């Protein structure tokens, strides 16, 4: 499968690219900065320079043409403003969905966040509240699209320690953490399991092997 990953230089995206390339897929990583191309290429993905905050639907659709699936793994990142949470975490995800429809790419998997809610009343850091609202609005937009075979993945707190290969994946898991390695592994399985379309899933560490956890939800 040819799989286009928005946020191709991100930590989860690079891990996902390695997994996809190893199993014979063709990952494509969308990047905003040309200096990231070598690292994306080293992870096994084809780098494509495209700024989702500035590109048109037609420009993105041209890159997606011929793809089998798209993954939204982009984010404004730490230290960014509330305004950029909206333009990237919401706006870019919506743009990618518009472009996927225009290009005829039905499968769309989005990396969201546990607690994402367009009307979040989170009372702490206002920028984090903006992030949760942006993620929730992007999820709501995606779930309204009848032309896309979408899956929303909402990981718990992300960690950089090595993955265990075992997870808890369900509509509701409760709070918890999960290594980025395991998030990438779940994304790879979801992309290979179209029967998981139409699901919003939470993800934390657990004791079920990744392939089994995804297969159980695809029945």
Level-1 CATH class name: Alpha Beta
Q: Rough shape? A: globular
Based on the structure, what is the oligomeric state of the protein chains?
single chain
| CATH architectural grouping | 3-Layer(aba) Sandwich
Number of helices: 7
Helix proportion range: 25-40%
Q: How many domains would you count in the coordinates?
A: 1
The sequence of SSEs as H and E is EHEHEHEHEHEEEEHEEH
User: What is the spatial order of strands in the main beta sheet?
Assistant: 3-2-1-4-5-6-10-8-11
Q: Terminal Cα separation, in Å?
A: 22 Å
Low-pLDDT parts are none
Task: Name the structural class.
Answer: alpha/beta
- From the alpha carbons, calculate the radius of gyration and give it in angstroms: 16 Å
| CATH homologous superfamily classification | NAD(P)-binding Rossmann-like Domain
Q: How many strands, what sense, and barrel or not for the largest sheet?
A: 9 strands, mixed
Walk me through what this model shows:
With 219 residues, the chain is α/β, with parallel strands linked by helices. It has a single domain (2-217), classed as Rossmann fold (3-Layer(aba) Sandwich). Helices cover 39% and strands 23% of the residues. It contains seven helices and eleven strands. The chain has helices at residues 11-22, 37-42, 57-64, 82-103, 126-143, 180-191, 210-217, and strands at residues 2-6, 26-31, 46-49, 69-72, 107-111, 149-155, 157-159, 166-170, 177-179, 199-205, 208-209. The strands form two sheets. A nine-stranded mixed beta sheet has the order 3-2-1-4-5-6-10-8-11, with helices on both faces. The protein has a two-stranded parallel ribbon with strand order 7-9. Helix 3 (57-64) crosses helix 4 (82-103). The longest helix is centred in the middle third of the chain and has 22 residues, at 82-103. The protein is globular, with a radius of gyration of 16 Å. The mean pLDDT is 96.
